[in-house]
Amino acid sequence: MSILILPLSDLEATLDTVGGKGMSLANLSRAGLPVPGGFHVTTEAYRRFIAENDLQKDILAALEIVDVAKPETLETASQNIRSVFARAKIPSELADAILQAYLSLPGPDPAVAVRSSATAEDLPEASFAGQQDTYLNISGKEALLDAVQKCWASLWTGRAIAYRIRQKIAPDHVALAVVVQLLVPAEAAGVLFTANPLTGRRDEALINAAWGLGEAVVSGAVTPDTIAADKATGRTLRRETAAKQVMTVRMEIGTREQPVPDSKKNTPVLSDAQVTELTRYGVQIETLYAVPMDIEWALAEGKFAIVQARPITALPGPEVMPPVEWKLPEPHGKYMRASIIEQLPEPLTPLFSSLGGSIIDEATTRLFAWLVGEKEWKANTKVFATVNDYGYMNVNIGRWATVRISMNMLFKMNWIFKQSAARWQEAHQHYLEVIQRWQTKQLEDYTASELLKGVRELTGETMQMYTVLQTGPIATAMGSETMFTQIYDRLIKKKGDPEASVYVMGFKSLPIQAELALYDLAEWARPCEGLASHLTATPAAQLGAELNSTLVPAGLDPQVWGDWQRRFLDHLAKYGHFTYDLDFSKSVAADDPAPLLEALRMYLLGKAASPYVRVQAITERREKSTQAMLRRLHGPKLWLFRKQVQSAQRYAPLREDGLSDLGLGYPLLRRMARELGRRLVLAGVLEQPEEVFWLYEKEVDQAAGELDRRQSVSSMTETVHDRREVWKAEQQVSPPMVLPVGSKYIGIDVEKLTSGGHSDAQNVIKGFGSSQGRVTAPACVLLGPEDFNRMRPGDVLVAPITTPAWTPLFALASAIVTDIGGPLSHSSIVAREYGIPAVLGTGVATRRIRSGQTITVDGGAGTVTYETTADQQARDPSQNS
Question: 790 versus 113: which is more confidently predicted?
Fold first, then answer.
């Protein structure tokens, strides 16, 4: 015999018989939770109603016109189906069964809630919440049968039809049960989440509470009180008591909204004790289901009732807190954020930290072996490490090894100076040859494993190039400028003479050449009226997409547009490899030219001055100062000045040229990685090609092998999401420049050598004053190229670091402030070229300063002064350290 009615807590109340909501209430009732009494009208009753009235053919006919993309077809189908339901009759046997169960409830014509319960709702994988109807305060036989019939019809609302089509649920596979429960005469009601749905925190419960029945909360008609509670203790953590304007109340028949009495509008709905009690019910329900739950509750005569519970859908991952400990990879290690780490300001992404990190380690140990004259570095210590995903170099390689490296550097110094340019050119040429070799085939023709091999080899060339720069152009540029500055300041400079830096400025290094070339492009486009207007009016991201399109933007001359495309793509081919950050997960201009297009727009709008004028002025000043000093000096001082200034001027441009070419292989490397990522997307492993950078080398290696063998590969989408959340949390902290914090190495205070230090004053940041001048202006905090469009002329550029790729922004900046960098870093050199103040190596500027905040940059004193707000202190506790 078919089951038409079941008691609320009956063991046969399963998903198939009573739907998701009904099954949930049955489980809660059997577990002893305070669920109002009632009964189920089963899915078999719905099917009996459909069959007795022969409605299935009408339902299917109505659905034939449905197109999810056209909402009007959904509503038409819904109205047709519901009108058929309204004309149908409940079979007498079924009506009798429903009324018999109703009459068994306590009291004459008891008021009940009649709730729809579909067979595919309130499940973790498919929440149909709100798709079907609920009717409150139903009293009497006829009203009950009418409400049941309306619930059945609500299975076919427009949004329910659309939802099932998107979820690919066939119309003949669904049925609807109805739950009839005694109505709770609620004085207050609301929703309890057993995990914070806003932050994802699993240790917090979040309660919404309002006066009257719960419909006002669920429908959004009222702004409820919001209470956060600790799940372990039930203790109230935070309260937001709302000004509650309306409440849902019972009428003789049904419900209505009415104003909240003035005495209750701003009164908390729940006491702390009630919050504790309700939270304990929530914990009990979550334990029963073993997942975070969304629970509807009501409060009457001081007692809680649970009227619904479903798993929370779309809950964010657990909130990841920023790290507070900096655990050493090796107990006796001494770690510094120096050397190549200056090019890696942010937490490293997994593929770079594993693949790139091991290559950095190998390249550095090869360099050490070369410096001490050995074929292989015999120390077991890993030089490169990560702490909270920030890169560090372990300098504790032993006293004897340190002495040997230092002594050999002195012995090799003369050779290093003589061979500096030649060794760099040789490494540069080899790098180009490797790039050309990997360009002999289309990326589609490489296997997945070959693509990964290409990424490794190009990364290897990048890091090898850096070691050549360390013992070549970087060493010679820094050494020659330092030596010249010391001799000039101590023996030659007199009052009124220019600073030593004037003699090594005004050279057309690659970043300056790129800036001049970009200005030339703007000047070429300026007379082309339609093109110039299009370039200034169109968002940079759209312009970037148009560059590789065969379509000509509306209103533009095809020949002019084609010429523009060719010229700008040629510019990218020559300069588009400059890196913003050596972590190869970060884009370069070759694959995202938007930052360059923003700079070009500023030239076209006249908001940035001609770089030719600036470069010429600086060059003339250098030449005049040099010639004047050569005429003034005599004897040994003349010989010493000429020798040292010629050395400094010879090597100064090489450093910037070398750093600019570190990313020569990055455009190809990133295309290869994204091609591998594209294949992983097709295999269902990732959602976006760029997510390949969030896998570790071993994971990519294994996945590439499985792709090549045509084996299935496990999905990594959740793992990637979790890693990104951790990365975002790590990005919020300022990594110590030295670990252990405050440690010294061979008696040297390393932190003072790697950062400017921090002031004791709460509103002053200290750093290296590397370019003279004092400016007060609004700050613009930029973490990467994705922020470049926020920069406005006259802003102070505040950034983690600046590399050659950042140079276009210097034309807009009134001053420069960085977290990382020293007196002879790229930021310092370019700031001097532009004649703007710079304070570098602050360690914390991007965390403490906010965009739009007025700050004072004093390049002479090496300080940045700003106003401290309570909000900033809360965001950055290090201000009080």
Answer: 113
Query: What does the alpha-carbon distance between residue 38 and residue 52 come to, in Å, rounded to a whole number?
Result: 26
Secondary structure of 234-280 in HEC code, one letter for each residue: CCEEEEECCCCCEEEEECCCCEEEEECCHHHHCCCCCCHHHHHHHHH
Q: What is the identity of the amino acid at 92?
A: S
What is the Rg, in whole angstroms, of the alpha carbon atoms belonging to the chain? Answer: 35
Compute the distance between CA of residue 831 and CA of residue 813 in angstroms, rounded to an integer. Answer: 9
CA angle 242, 243, 247 (to 5 degrees): 100
Distances (CA, A) of 45 to 172, 178, 203: 15, 9, 42
Do residues 728 and 316 lie in contact, with contact meaning Cβ atoms separated by under 8 Å? no
pLDDT digits (tens, 9 = 90+) for 316-340: 766 778 898 999 998 888 898 888 8
Q: Which amino acid is at 672?
A: M
Tokens of 183: 């109505």
β-strand 744-745 against 384-387: which pairing, if any? unpaired
DSSP of 628-642: HHHHH--HHHHHHHH
Strand partners, 134: 115
Asked if 596 and 791 touch (Cβ cutoff 8 Å), the reply is: no
pLDDT band at 744 (very low <50, low <70, confident <90, very high): low
Helix (H) or strand (E) holding 454: helix 448-470
**pLDDT exceeds cutoff 90 at 538:** no
Q: Residue 109 in 3-state DSSP?
A: coil
Strand 255-259 versus strand 293-300 pairing type: unpaired
Is beta strand 796-799 parallel, antiparallel or unpaired with respect to 774-781?
A: parallel
**C-alpha to C-alpha distance for 497 and 836, rounded to whole angstroms:** 19
Listing DSSP states for 371-394 in one string gives HTT-SS------SEEEETTEEEEE
List the 225-230 sheet strands across, edge first.
236-240, 225-230, 204-211, 188-193, 293-300, 303-311
- Distance CA(200)–CA(399), nearest Å, equals 49
Which token pair is 638? 């003349």
Sign of the CA dihedral with 775 first, then 780, 783, and 786 last: negative
Check: CB of residue 27 under 8 Å from CB of residue 288: yes
* pTM of the complete model: 0.66
Residues 112 and 83: their CA atoms lie apart, in Å, by 25
Residue 149: how many other CB atoms lie within 10 Å: 18
Contact 435, 668 (CB under 8 A): yes
> In angstroms, rounded to a whole number, what is the distance separating the alpha carbons of residues 500 and 623?
13
Cα gap 55→349, rounded to integer Å: 58
Contact by Cβ (8 Å): 676, 646: no
Q: Are 817 and 797 within 8 A, CB to CB?
A: yes
Q: What's the one-letter identity of residue 807? A: T
In eight-state DSSP terms, residue 175 is -
Beta bridge partners of 257: 248
Helices (H), 764-876: 807-810, 826-834, 845-848, 870-875
Number of neighbours of residue 173 by Cβ within 10 angstroms: 9
Q: Which domains does the chain have, with CATH numbers?
A: 1-183 (3.30.1490.20), 185-319 (3.30.470.20), 749-880 (3.50.30.10)
Counting Cβ atoms within 10 Å, is residue 873 exposed (0-12), middle (13-18) or buried (19+)?
Answer: middle
CA distance 757 to 374: 37
Q: Cα separations (Å) of 252 from 150, 267, 301, 306?
A: 20, 27, 20, 24
Using one digit for the tens of pLDDT, what is the confidence trace for 184-196?
Answer: 999 999 999 999 8
Scored b (16 or more CB within 10 A) or e, 250-275 reads beeeebebeebeeeeeeebbbeeebb
Give bridge partners of residue 816 from the DSSP assignment.
797, 838
**In 3D, which of 560, 567, 591, 565 has the Cα closest to residue 578?**
591
- Do 392 and 337 contact (CB within 8 A), yes or no? yes
Count H helices and E strands in the chain, helices first: 30, 27
Residue with tokens 């992983």: 680
